[in-house]
Amino acid sequence: KQNIEYFRGSENNVLKRVYFAAKKYKADNIVEISGDSPLIDPKIIDDAIKFLKINNHVDYLNVDHGLPGGIGFEIIKFMSLKKSYQFSTKKYEKEHVTPYIIKNPRKFNSFYFIANKKLKYPMNLSFLLDEKEDYLFLQKITSLIKKNFFDNFDLIKIIKKKKINL
Predict the structure, then answer these.
(1) What's this model's pTM, rounded to 2 decimal places?
(2) Would you state the pLDDT for residue 123?
(3) 3-class secondary structure for the chain?
């Protein structure tokens, strides 16, 4: 009714769904963000895309190592996604987008960002939204931030400052 373009694909074969969506929209790079991660920092995504443009030889970029749950993401070049789609045979490889790429480091040039030390505190911190308790936690944190746009550093600062229980 709103004339919003969308893509609907296989419910079980996520790799196939993402591949055909990327193909339909002629994507060069695919930024994969999980649906349970509502607080992804767009500035970090922009930085990762800039890195990928400068380092054109990188096929797969993982921005998740050492970050609290729910603020990481991956970027896959379309040709790597296509190769993964063509050669993935296992059910697990098709239920997710990147297992084939991760398991085949000789076929793909992968790069793993190490989290900024300021984002690593505390280790059991998670911004994932899976359960009601997660929603309440995220609601509490975001209500304490008094500006329209906030980044992941703001989230960590508010947790340290207010000593919020995890």
Answers:
(1) 0.85
(2) 62
(3) CCCCCCCCCCCCCHHHHHHHHHHHCCCCEEEECCCCCCCCCHHHHHHHHHHHHHCCCCCEEEEEECCCECCCEEEEEHHHHHHHHHHCCCHHHHHCCCHHHHHCCCCCCEEEEECCHHHCCCCCCECCCCCHHHHHHHHHHHHHCCCCCCCHHHHHHHHHHHCCCC
